[in-house]
């Protein structure tokens, strides 16, 4: 998936010793997205803004904070996380790749 | 380091089981670059076009094919590789990050 007319940051943000990495882009309308990779492991992320996590490669298991339900998302699927919340994401094998967009509401 | 008015590919190219990853961008003039991460290890890459590898984070050790000399490159430094050649790059610790540009000649 390509994004045109963007400003791309070449240096990645590195989380969990590099098990999760992201690159930021800024779109023409000023909005920002990140895309990146998730190596096998279990990670918790907190949100400030609400976000949509679109999986573009691999597969992950997601549990939203405060929920007992886990859902599996594969390439072409997405999940949304409310603002000021969080989620635990597990990649069991291979590498998950994602695009994260900040959204107004969930 | 940011690149403006580019088309960015969200999905990474994954090499060596994810120990080396790159994202491609296309600039306004139609030229392409990649940027990415190199996790600890030793990797050999072959070139088709000549390229400039700029290190933007971490440190790596590089030996060009056919050379006995190894050189260390840290953030802010670069090395160039001729077309139809190759190089062995070692990251001993941490994560190296790079921008790769295709160039006319070395």
Automatic annotation (TrEMBL), chains A, B:
GO CC terms: cytosol
Keyword hit for Glycosyltransferase: yes
Domain of life: Bacteria
Top EC class, one word: transferase
Record EC number: 2.4.2.1, 2.4.2.2
InterPro entries to which the protein is assigned, alphabetical: Ppnp, RmlC-like_jellyroll, RmlC_Cupin_sf
Keywords, ordered alphabetically: Glycosyltransferase, Transferase
GO MF annotations in UniProt: purine-nucleoside phosphorylase activity; pyrimidine-nucleoside phosphorylase activity
Record's catalysed reaction(s): guanosine + phosphate = alpha-D-ribose 1-phosphate + guanine; thymidine + phosphate = 2-deoxy-alpha-D-ribose 1-phosphate + thymine; adenosine + phosphate = alpha-D-ribose 1-phosphate + adenine; inosine + phosphate = alpha-D-ribose 1-phosphate + hypoxanthine
Role noted for this protein: Catalyzes the phosphorolysis of diverse nucleosides, yielding D-ribose 1-phosphate and the respective free bases. Can use uridine, adenosine, guanosine, cytidine, thymidine, inosine and xanthosine as substrates. Also catalyzes the reverse reactions.
Assigned protein family: Belongs to the nucleoside phosphorylase PpnP family.
Protein name: Pyrimidine/purine nucleoside phosphorylase
Annotated organism of origin: Oceaniferula marina
């Amino acid at each position: 998936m390509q994004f045109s007319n963007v400003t791309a940051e070449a240096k990645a943000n590195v989380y969990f010793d590099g098990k999760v990495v992201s690159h930021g882009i800024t779109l023409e309308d000023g909005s920002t997205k990140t895309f990146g990779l998730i190596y096998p492991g279990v990670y918790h992320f907190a949100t400030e803004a609400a976000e949509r996590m679109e999986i573009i490669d691999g597969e992950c298991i997601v549990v939203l904070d405060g929920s007992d339900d886990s859902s599996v998302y594969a390439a072409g699927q997405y999940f949304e996380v409310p603002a000021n919340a969080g989620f635990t994401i597990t990649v069991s094998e291979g590498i998950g790749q994602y695009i994260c967009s900040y959204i107004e509401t969930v």
